[in-house]
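MODEL INPUT / OUTPUT PAIR
PAIR INDEX: 1
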Amino acid sequence: MKEFKAVILSSDAHEYRDILLAEALPGLSIEICRDVEQAEPHLADCDIMFGTPALVSPLISRAPRLKWVQSMWAGITPFLVPGMRRDYILTGVKEVFGPMMAEYVICHMLIHERRFLHRFQSQLVKQWDTTPPGTLMGKYVGIMGIGSIGRAIAGAAKFFGMKTRGFSRTQTQCKNIDCCYLFRELTSFVKGLDYLVCVLPETADTTGLIDDALLQAMPDTALIINVGRGNVIHEPSLIRALENGNIAGAVLDVFQEEPLPPDHGFWETPNTLITSHTAALSFPGEIAPIFVENYQRFINHEALMYQIDFEHGY
């Protein structure tokens, strides 16, 4: 049987290696690296890379035998830089982050409805706060991006009796989505929303979708939650909308530049909660099985799961 050499690039490389070794994958030799420097000696005869995009992407051009890259993250933007090599199979991660993302989104919608942050401020000044809370029941949530993560969020929203809208490039119907909107219907999509949840990938088409015009079309009671990619939001527009009270608030997990610079306006923007790209982390026990399944497909010359289309960017 043909032998393949895989390089694992991750701060959790040892844990990933132990999982893969337990699977006794045929014909696979494994090298583990925690950084780019450790990977350098293994690039010349590397067939497969399994790692985080930030570590793997700088090495693509230096691995002449490379045939397949399995990302450990849902986001694959570092692999899509114009001019980068594309003569290999790139596979992403799906059907993993949905439950964690749904948990995050529902958590912050409940915090907003139940006024938890306001009540905590009242507690700090020993004030008995009897302001009536809201409820998710009957509220409108618009989900930008109705892939596996968006569908999981929609299912959780339905559990709480919410009314759901979906926004997609091509889809016109989806489970747990009451009504789907296409790109040309973006303004209609956001009108009347109580919550706008962004889970879109980073592509040329999604950059700057949430701008001044769109924010002005939203109710001033709406809350934006972004767990997708930072490029979707035109950041100066959102800061203006929050400062002027055009929307109720924003929960932001992702940004155009990460870590968010200390002098960025978001740190001091009112009604803004920053969660530092922690909405859904990659855990080896959940990601490694995707590699295992795809490796079996790879050696059997079958189509791999979650293959990325370089042109579309997802």
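PAIR INDEX: 2
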Amino acid sequence: MQTRRDVLRLSAAAALGLQLPNAKAADDWRTQFPEIRFSVRPNENAEGMSRWGEMAEYLASALRTKVVVRQTTDYAGTIEALRSKRLELAYLGAAGYAQAWLVTQANVEPIAAVVAAGGDTGYYSMIIVKSDSNYRTVDDLQGKTLAYTDPNSTSGFEVPSFFLRKEGKDPSKFFAKTGFAGTHENAVMAVYNGTYDAAATWYTAETRTNVTRMESKGLIPPNAVRLVWKSPKIEGDVFTARSDLPSSMRLDIQKALLDLPKADPALLKRLGDGTYEGIVTITHDDYVPIVTMIRENLAAKRKQ
């Protein structure tokens, strides 16, 4: 009799265009890849890296092989490591995935995405300012300074650059100065400390933003900064594997990820600071608009 687990496994295989592996095929990929190198976002702090270390332990147990978590200094480092085949798996933002897809000439694919509370797989970019400033809308920031996070960050650079330009506010001309803070926390701190007038960061829901996260950790006081701009909705972060990995290996990794919510729901919650509720399959088609956005941003940069 076909069980629900069998149906889910068949559905996952269909989503990736894969054939279900037999036992011998599963053993074959472990011989070829005795270690899975897994990169997480460069903006993770020590606490976040500890949680991802737990994730590596879960994957190692589920896949019956060694899994090593690595953290590059920036998104470009992760993308280059995927291109040069020094990584098998990465957890990327939407723009990071799109950049990797372009740089590797389509040698990466999304295999799973997290679902936030309320069943949402997407999020937003927002621009924040100090609450005691005179800035009420993004229009008030003309001639002021803006802190981005990283050149390959989705909410911290690519999305605000794209949509502000669509609104007739070319960031290279609209702001007096822009710069990269390195991480989302650093960008917010740059505003709080008065180094920049505004900063771009992420927003999932009114009670789930980078700002509320920093407030809950005591990094900034409550209500120290406020929102003046929010982007249209964008696709969320994605587990990304190299497309040239054996199909049985990609399917096994995907299955382990899809099983996590039931196998260790507490770990899933910890990974998202309590905001993650599930993991679902996703395809490249879901990220085509982000690829288009990246291409337009690159074209605009070349014209500057």
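PAIR 2 NOTE: The first strand starts at residue 35 and ends at 40.
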